[in-house]
Task: inverse folding
């Protein structure tokens, strides 16, 4: 699967809200993703790619519920064309080959852990549409190494 637009990604993120855990309980992938992204926004407000990585990891559980071992890598492959290599690398939990340590990866792991138990109003998913569009637009620039986010243009981006 390959996500081609922010609209497709938003649809998947909204679907996470409706997903259910085997056994009947409601899944909180949607809420956890919002909390993770909000925590990253607080600690790294300028790092939109890191925030987006925290938000989109939730779609893996929806798309590949029976593949927990391969879920991160498959989710990374799905978001790479739209959101770029760095977001995909963070989602896949891979450190860059050229860097000894990735602070973003560490912060993502910490925010995900805190997002599992934190209780606060993390806002609504629609608040993240503009951030997703911004990251997709950056990735679609010539020389950015990704494809255009079809149908999405941000003035001044």
Result:
């Amino acid at each position: 699967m390959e996500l081609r637009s922010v609209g497709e990604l938003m649809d998947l993120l909204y679907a996470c809200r409706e997903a259910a855990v085997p056994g009947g309980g409601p899944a909180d992938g949607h809420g956890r993703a919002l909390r993770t992204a909000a925590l990253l926004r607080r600690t790294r407000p300028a790092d939109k790619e890191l925030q987006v990585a925290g938000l989109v990891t939730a779609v893996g559980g929806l798309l590949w519920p029976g593949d927990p071992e391969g879920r991160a890598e498959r989710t990374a492959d799905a978001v790479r064309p739209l959101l770029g290599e760095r977001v995909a690398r963070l989602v896949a939990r891979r450190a860059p080959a050229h860097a000894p340590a990735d602070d973003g990866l560490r912060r993502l792991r910490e925010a995900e852990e805190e997002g599992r138990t934190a209780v606060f109003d993390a806002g609504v998913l629609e608040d993240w549409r503009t951030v997703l569009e911004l990251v997709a637009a950056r990735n679609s620039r010539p020389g950015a190494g990704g494809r255009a986010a079809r149908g999405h243009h941000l003035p001044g981006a």
